[in-house]
Please model this.
Amino acid sequence: MEMKKSIGLTVALMVSILLTPGAAVADARSASTWINPDQVLATSNKGTGDARVTSVGTVQVRFGRHSNGRVYGWGRALNSGNRFLVFEVDTNGDRRFDLSSEEHIQSRPNVWTSGFQTSSSSNVAFRACITPWEGQICENYPETRTGWW
Model:
């Protein structure tokens, strides 16, 4: 009886996690390759890999060292109004995004995404863009995106 109770609680917990908005994303980003926006803010030795001044704000690919010693890249938007910031990661060298992170800018003057661990492999590259709507990809916005960095 105790075993059934334990299995039932485990299943109920798993269903609860799966039905919680954002839970799967947060869980997937807890892997060592991603850090959240608060961890991005806490990085040191920050720099800009690529940047573009556009008619809707400045978009940047930034990088910095996390307290775990690894270097991460992320997207940042400056002075962009009520739009969305998208950070795309290419992991296989085809210069099409494989992973991404998105933040609603909401007229905040300085917004950044989650960060992805950099790599010495030329297959891994980052770019960022500003889009007018949620769920868009940078490929569709050449005028408001950085190059691959």
